[in-house]
Amino acid sequence: MIEVVNPKPADAFRLTAGSLQMMTRPVVSVLDDAAPLPGDPRGASSPLGWQVFPTMDGTVIAHGGDVEGSHSFAVASVSHRSGYVVMTNGENGWRLTHQLITAAEMHRLLAA
Hints:
This protein is an alpha+beta fold. The protein has one domain (2-110). It has 4 helices and 6 strands. A 4-stranded antiparallel sheet has the order 3-4-5-6, covered by helices on one side. The relative contact order is 0.16.
């Protein structure tokens, strides 16, 4: 996530500016009139690897994943160069993750 929100110059191990832009540019949209929060698919779009969510504070990118017994979710604001990652180690971790990523307190971290 750090490389996406605060990229270093491209080299043999880092993404090019074009690749980074493709990862955060909307490709497939989920249309809805509601103003979504990260984790809420309304108004979201999917580029290569990240979901993109419009919010009142600007656009954020998000990506989550599961393996048996754990769940994780990363959210970042490229324009504000901030983000956070939530990781759990329980089968119901997705519930906690959803509660955290939709909490107003967490959105303040992205607008800093």
